[in-house]
Amino acid sequence: MLKKNVVENTVLAALGTGADFAEIYMEETKRNTLSVVNGRVESAQSGLDYGVGIRLFFGNKAIYGFTNDTSEKNLIRIAREAAAAARGERVYALQGWRKMNFSCRNPIRIMPDEVEKRKKAEKLFLASEAAKNYSSLITQTRANCLDVVQNVFIANSEGLWAEEQRVRSRFNVEAIASSATEKQSGHLGPGGSVGFELYEQIDVEERAREAARIAVTMLGAKPCPAGRMPVVIENGFGGVIFHEACGHSLEATAVARNASVFCGKMGQQIASSVVTAIDDGTIPNGWGSAAMDDEGTPTQRNVLIENGVLRSYLVDKLNGRRMGAKSTGSSRRESYRFAPTSRMTNTFIDNGKSTPTEILGNTEFGLYAKQMGGGSVDPATGSFNFAVLEGYMIRDGKIAEPVRGATLIGKGTEVLQKIDMVGNNLARAQGMCGSISGSIPTDVGQPMIRVKEITVGGRG
Length: 460
Fold this sequence. Notes:
With 460 residues, the chain is of the alpha+beta class.
């Protein structure tokens, strides 16, 4: 960590030409990855990322610089160069330091960087073997594990002095099934802000067999029919649709630039009354959880939509200035190389009152999206396009034959209004989210939901 006098001298240099806010962000991140392909170790890597980012505000404008040379001389140089890029009306004084004390939201029992690679590899070998033995159609397996230990320090000219250690672990498994003419894949990637105890919480062999089952099932599936129809989306990773099609449009990154379809709609009905959506960075051991955001603001539970009514945006310091709004503890970044901005943490549609049996039973015909794949969205319009990794037709209220090649096409604003049933089986899944402040870990989630009508793309 930086010495107090180095922090003070760097901040004072940043304020030297009239900046009204200066911030130092320092991190030391240890990262370990291990990958096994077809039962053999393909790669084992360890790395250390270390550096400092310096950010200045001049009103509603910001200047950012970063370095991995953390000497006092170099930090002061970068601060002065950044300050010289703009001029304020007066020089601001440095306030006294206020050390932040956070309660531990992510208790760690087994530090992953202290576990031998051999023990990690044993888990991956088990997964690879389980997936391979599921079916003779499985032609390739890949299992890998990731663990990250990140130490973060933040200080700013408002007197904030904050530190946090963040530990995350994730297991990924992929199985590929092949025929003479095609290939299909299945994938699962559980994780959390946990240590090596993750592998006591999950059964890697069971997860591997499930990935293999998806691949084999989709290999034998017929093409999905195209058209507008009801779609039932399963819990867990099904929440990626809300995350992408709606969540990004609720980030101040877009709202402050008037580049969101939800601008100016606070307090208005933007979704069906059965929809309540939450972003909660305080969930114990959640994949996107932390005690503080990347500006040193405590994370919190933000109700974004309540019974269909827009209640909150996700706000960071800079965009909060532009909007006249307070930070919601939502500022995040991939590393010191990126200036932070408003991002999601653990975002999900909350439980409703329907059961999965009721939702399916009330759907005479439609598509059941059990597993969602990747997609794309335009936050300015909310238009999205998502692949369905594992899908089935619904006939007479029951899950029928598997179908492949399905895509869901629409607009977030329309989908929110057309959700007419929300289940009571909330589950979350882990992913990585990319935006202007880099790639960050985020949870997505929901119970089973039904969209009464949406465009389904397919070849059937």
